[in-house]
């Protein structure tokens, strides 16, 4: 059975989960066998605090906007998020940031951490740094490099970022996936070859050296001296 993968992103009030910042948006898109399923989870969350102007400029979510969307506090949706991601591989760009906020919010509710929920974490930022060292590896930069259309992304948003990240991840891993598929095909070909060896007919034609070639060979062996393995093996064969 293939493992569930969740393309995941969050938006927050700031950068520091240990200093009072809170999660304000969660999005997760389920993928199985490199195909998006119809299952997803997208939630706006009231942070129960003010929204810094700098953060609102990034994602466009002011407290007024969240209240208009009737966004609940995290305590009302935390268990739903935990059950949605449980046991899945999480595909996240800059995973340390999102996992840090999720673990902070889960801890406030007494819920298990992302790791304790049995999630495997794949960080596409780390993948990109390895694949494209010394280059810009933001989500925008990767979309441009890999030909992913990001024209709909006016502001940062967890849902649109998940959709873009899903395409980026599939592009970044396509070659690896193709190589894995090719390896399986090659293995099957090898099995077929072993099961049906080529049948030889007739006898091999032996072409013997002429006198001049034989004499030249003997001169070469003389130059090797007493340690010549060819003559030792020939003598042993004759004694046998």
TrEMBL record:
Q: Does the keyword Transmembrane helix apply?
A: no
Positions binding substrate in this chain are 9, 11, 54, 59, 161
Cofactor note text: Binds 2 divalent metal cations. Magnesium or manganese.
Cofactor(s) needed, names only, are:
Mg(2+); Mn(2+)
Sorted alphabetically, which InterPro entries does this protein's record hold? Answer: DnaQ, DnaQ_proteo, Ribonucl_H, RNaseH-like_sf, RNaseH_sf
Q: What keywords sit in the KW lines?
A: DNA replication, DNA-directed DNA polymerase, Exonuclease, Hydrolase, Magnesium, Manganese, Metal-binding, Nuclease, Nucleotidyltransferase, Transferase
State a single Gene Ontology molecular function.
Answer: DNA-directed DNA polymerase activity
**Which amino acid positions bind a divalent metal cation, per UniProt?**
9, 11, 161
Q: What class of enzyme is it?
A: transferase
Recorded hits in Pfam families, A to Z, give: RNase_T (PF00929)
Query: EC no.?
Result: 2.7.7.7
- Subunit-structure text: DNA polymerase III contains a core (composed of alpha, epsilon and theta chains) that associates with a tau subunit. This core dimerizes to form the POLIII' complex. PolIII' associates with the gamma complex (composed of gamma, delta, delta', psi and chi chains) and with the beta chain to form the complete DNA polymerase III complex.
What is this protein for, i.e. what is its function? DNA polymerase III is a complex, multichain enzyme responsible for most of the replicative synthesis in bacteria. The epsilon subunit contain the editing function and is a proofreading 3'-5' exonuclease.
Q: What is this protein called?
A: DNA polymerase III subunit epsilon
Species the sequence originates in: Neisseria animalis
Q: Which gene encodes it?
A: dnaQ
């Amino acid at each position: 059975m293939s493992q569930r993968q969740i393309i995941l992103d969050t938006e927050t009030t700031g950068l520091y989960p240990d200093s009072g910042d809170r999660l304000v948006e969660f999005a997760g898109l389920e993928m199985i066998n490199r195909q998006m399923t119809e299952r997803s989870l997208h939630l706006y969350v009231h942070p129960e605090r003010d929204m810094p102007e700098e953060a609102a400029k990034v994602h466009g979510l002011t407290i007024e906007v969240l209240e208009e969307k009737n966004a609940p506090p995290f305590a009302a949706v935390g268990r739903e998020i935990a059950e949605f991601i449980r046991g899945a591989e999480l595909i996240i760009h800059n995973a340390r940031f999102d996992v840090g906020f999720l673990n902070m919010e889960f801890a406030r509710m007494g819920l298990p951490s992302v790791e304790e929920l049995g999630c495997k974490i794949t960080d596409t930022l780390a993948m990109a740094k390895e694949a494209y060292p010394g280059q810009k590896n933001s989500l925008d930069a990767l979309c441009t490099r890999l030909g992913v259309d990001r024209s709909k992304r006016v502001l940062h948003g967890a849902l649109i970022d998940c959709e873009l990240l899903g395409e980026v991840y599939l592009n970044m891993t396509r070659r690896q996936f193709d190589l894995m598929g090719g390896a399986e095909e090659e293995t099957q070909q090898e099995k077929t070859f072993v099961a049906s060896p080529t049948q030889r007919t007739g006898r091999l034609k032996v072409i013997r050296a002429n006198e001049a070639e034989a004499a030249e060979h003997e001169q070469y062996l003389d130059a090797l001296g007493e340690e010549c393995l060819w003559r030792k093996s020939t003598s042993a064969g004759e004694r046998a």
